[in-house]
Each structure stands twice: as structure tokens, then as C-alpha cells.
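Internal ticket - ligand job 387, magnesium ion:
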Amino acid sequence: MTRPDAHDGLVPWAVRTSRGRRHPEPAPEWRSEYQRDRDRIIHAGAFRRLEYKTQVFLNHEGDLFRTRLTHSLEVNQVARTMARALGLNEDLVEAIALAHDLGHTPFGHAGQEALNRCMRDHGGFEHNLQSLRVVDSLEQRYAEFDGLNLTFETREGVLKRCARRHAERLGDVGQRFLDGTHPSLEAQLTNLADEIAYNSHDVDDGLRAGLLELDALIEVPLVGEILTHVRESHPGLDARRTIYQTVRHLISHQVDDLITTTRTRVEAAAPVDADAVRTAEAPLAAFSPEMAEAHRGLKHFLFHNLYRHYRVHRMTTKAQRVIEELFTLLHGDPQLLPPQAHESARTLEQRLGERGRARAVADYIAGMTDRFAIAEHERLHDPRRLA
Ligand code: MG
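stdout (C-alpha cells):
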């Protein structure tokens, strides 16, 4: 018996064969290379911790809001639907989607900004780079190598953005940021699926948390039209179903637009294979100009009405203080770190000096869940708590 051909039904410009792994390994017997990547991601400790990390709302605020884990599953669902419709490699899309947020700090955007500020003089902190760092070295569970030893294509997809100064030391996956080429179509699509997922679920969570008013959405491009349509087609529908019905259509409108626009762009560019996608004049996955405009309107609305809401702002401020105080304390006295993190701090400091010590502290903090960060902060500050 042989393994089912993972290439059935793929278009010529889909990713078929891998450029390989950093540490060569025999091909898996029953799975595709990207299924193996996905499986390693799902079994990683960093993946399990996504359950207790948040995006906008903090983990303990309620059980109904998105976490990084449910967000990653939604990205996966949206991305796989589009990949299948476009004849692309669904296994690769799944691996990228499930790994894309592994490097996120506790407390969502607030945590990322705070840690970046703490690391200002030590090379900065950027969650895309950190996701790559998690899969390339921080997960330490395999006998033969550090990290998960994922394929080039999954790593390329995980590194969504990267500054030039970082790209220079990243080798193969950093190259495209230096020469202005693109990642695979699978990676491009998954990155846009991320955008579809968070735009839609921030509206959903914001409404259900009572921070956004349904009526205020009427003025927002795209969402307003959908909401009006839902109300007209279902007069008297209760608020809960109206929200769900609106968000549901919001996702499918964006998905339809992305599939259709991408298909047209691929037809026009006529790439012969996956590498031709990488060197095409512009990225082939894209929203229509109208949808891109609607996104800008929605982001503007969310920024002013949700992310800047005083209740969100209070939590954000507290979260930033926790991260900053943890960093100052642990960086100032690495002996406070638990043994494994202390060991990393020593090793990295020997190699890179103070910058290395700061990086080890950032790795330790970035790996925390929301609740662990809060508990660790209490243990370090409150003399009545056990160390
Ligand atoms: Mg994401």
C-alpha cells in the first residue's frame, strides 16, 4: 500500500515538492511533508498555550471570546476553504495557519507592544519573527534537533513580515524581504485569511461584550450593508442571531471576494509553477480594490470604537504594566528566572552579550499565557505569595 497522492487535483502553481528541512529527514511514510509539519505543530507546547492567550480581550474576561487557539482554528478553516477552491496545497495552508501565531506574547497586541518597547535597545520584539523562532529553536522536544524542523514552505509562510535588518540573518526564509519577491500562493492566502478572521471576530466579540453597538455598525462600509440586509430579510430577529448572521455573511463576502480576485489575477499572470508565483510582479492573492477599501473603513471603526474603548484601554494598560515590570525585574536579575530559562539566559549572554540575556528574558515572557504572566508577576512582587 502506498500513501495517497497528496497532489491530486492541485493546479500547476500550487506547492508540490518541498525545498526541504534544515536537518534532512527521510520522507514520511503515510503523510505528506506538510501533514507532518501540521502534526508537529499540534503536538508543540507553544500550540497548547495558545488556548490561554488572547487577542483583544483578556483570557479571564469570559469564556465566549476568541483566544489565539480558536483564532488559529478559524484562520485554518477560512484558508483551507479558499485553498481547496483554488486547487492549492491544503496541507501546507493548514500547517501555516496553525503555526502563524505561535510567537505571540500574552495579552495580545498590548503585550507585543510592551515587549517590543522593553527590547528597544536589544534588537526589538516582533511576533512574526518570534513564531519562526518558536518553530526553529525554542520548542525543544526532538532528540536530533532543536525546534520542529519544519519544511522551508511552512517556515516561509509563518514569517509574514520581517524588517530588512532581521531578514539579512535569516537565510533562505529571509531572502524574499531583501529581493522583493513573494511567498507561495498558499502563504499569501493564509495571511489574508488571518485578516478575514480577525476583522470578523473582533466585530463579533466586541458586540457580544457590549463594547460595540449593533446600530453603530450601520455606518461602517460592508458591515452596514450586510446588517441592513439581515434586518430586511429577517424582520424581528433577536440581537444574538442578528449578530451571528451578520458576522457569518461578513466572512463569506470576504472569502468570495478573495477567491474571485485571486483567480482573476492568477489567470492574468499565468504562472507556470510555484516559483513563478514567487517571482511574479505583484502578490497574486488579493482582495478587490472595493474590499480593500471596506477593510480600511472597518479597521478605522474598530480602532476608534473597540481597541480604544475605555474598558479595553484599562485592561491594555494593566497588561502592559505586567509585561514591563516582569521584563525589568528578570532582565535586571536573571537569577530570578526558573532553571531552564536561566540556563538559556546564560548561554545566550555568553554568545551575544547583554543582548542575548535580554532575548532569553523576552523568550520566557513571550511564551507565557495571560494567566501565567499575571501569576508570575504576583509571585515576583507580592511578598505574601510563595515564590
Ligand atoms: Mg493571527
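Auto-summary: The CA atoms of residues 39 and 259 lie 27 Å apart. The mean pLDDT is 93.
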